[in-house]
Amino acid sequence: xxxxxxxxSLSFGIAFGIYMLFLGWVSAFGWGIRDVTIISNLYIGxxxxxxxxxxxxxxxxxxxxxxxxxxxxxxxxxxxxxxx
Length: 84
What we know:
Layout: H1 5-27, H2 33-39, H3 50-82
Helix pairs in contact: 1-3
C-alpha cells in the first residue's frame, strides 16, 4: 500500500502544528515551560505566549510537513523495493 505523499505531508504538518500551538498556550499557564524553552532554541519566536504559540504552530506545520514528506517518500521507496 503506497502512501499519498501530499496527503501524508499535509496531515503530519497539521498535527504537529496543532501540537506546537497547544504546547505553547499550555506553557503560558506554567505547564511544560522547560519543553518550550528547549524548542524555542530551534524555532525563532516560539514561546509561552499567545503569539508565541501561533508562531510555533507555523514552525511546527512547516517542520511537520517536511518530515511527513520524507517519511512517506522513504516508505514508498522501500515498499516498492521490497514488495513481493
